[in-house]
Structures are given as C-alpha cells and as structure tokens.
Amino acid sequence: MKKVWLFACVLLLSAGVFAQQKKAEDVVKFKELSYDFGKIKQGTPVTHNFEFANISEAPVVIESATPSCGCTTPVKPEGAIAKGKADKIIAGFNAASPGPFNKSITIKVAGVDLPLQLKITGEVLTADAFAKYEADKSQAKPAKSSN
Predict the structure, then answer these.
(1) What is the pLDDT of residues 7-45, one digit of tens each?
(2) Burial level of 125, CB count in 10 A (0-12/13-18/19+)?
(3) 12 burial level (CB within 10 Å; 0-12, 13-18, 19+)
(4) pTM attached to this predicted model
(5) What sign for the dihedral angle of Cα 17, 18, 20, 23?
(6) What is the CATH number of domain 24-130?
(7) Spatial distance between the Cα atoms of 81 and 24, rounded to a whole number of angstroms
(8) Rounded to the nearest 5°, which phi and psi values hold at 4?
(9) Edge to edge, what strands does the sheet with 72-75 contain?
(10) What burial class does residue 37 get, using C-beta atoms within 10 Å of its C-beta: 0-12 exposed, 13-18 middle, 19+ buried?
(11) Distance between CA atoms of 65 and 140, rounded to whole angstroms?
(12) How confident is the model at residue 101 (pLDDT cuts 50, 70, 90)?
C-alpha cells in the first residue's frame, strides 16, 4: 500500500511540475511554424523568413536556432527583441541532393523551458527534371482571353 501511495504522490508531483513549464509559444508568436518550398532546382539555395512577434511583457532573446542537419542554415536575430516588436528567423536550405526533404529548426528562447520547432519541406529536382516541371507548369496555365 505504501508503494501505491508513493507512486501516486510522485505522479501528481511530476504532473504539476510539467504543467508549470513555460513554452516558447508563450512569449513569441510565429506567423507560421512550417513552410513548403515546393519543387526547387538542385544546386539553387533557397531561404524563407519565419516572422515572429514578442507577445510577452519583457524583451525576448532567441538563444539558439539549431538545424536538424547541415543542409539547413538558420539565422537568428542578435540581441533582445522588445515587447510588442517583430523580427524573423531566416531558414536557408542548400538544395544539394535531389529528392523530397523535411527539415526542422529548434528554437530556444532565453528563460523558457520548452523550445519550439520550425519546419521546412519541399522537393529538390535535378536540372532536367526541374526544366520539365517548369515547362509542364507553363503549359498548364490557361490562355488569357482578349475581350
């Protein structure tokens, strides 16, 4: 019986601790948490700006922006972002290898327990496949009518 009581107390205590952890979403609000580049040409690096605002009552510092692999290069703002102000994290992708990709960037905010993740997806096509994709796309556009 003592073991059951001890287990129940530990479970209740740990639930309370986890419930009090501050999340990055509590202090910064991103316009979007994921972005799809669609089809991109191999060897042509691409970037996307993940815009966010400081929704807390104090200045916020982005401590780190850690990519899931070396092919993704995030650039975080340096210094504090004032209350109510906006900034961005630039996500770069080198597009070196053909094929679909699904990468993440883990964002750590100073003073916040739980980080958040930004995601980028898309498909890298070889030069020939990309040329064919572009040609097919332009042929699929409806012709403009002249009135």
Answers:
(1) 555 555 554 445 557 788 889 999 999 999 999 999 999
(2) buried
(3) exposed
(4) 0.79
(5) positive
(6) 2.60.40.10
(7) 14
(8) -65, -45
(9) 28-30, 46-54, 86-93, 72-75
(10) middle
(11) 39
(12) very high
Q: Greatest CA separation found in the chain?
A: 86
**CA 97 to CA 84: how far, in whole Å?**
40
Per-domain boundaries in the chain: 24-130
Q: What is the model's pLDDT at position 58?
A: 94
Among 103, 127, 124, 106, CA closest to 115:
106
Confidence at residue 83, expressed as pLDDT on a 0 to 100 scale: 95
AA letter at 71: C
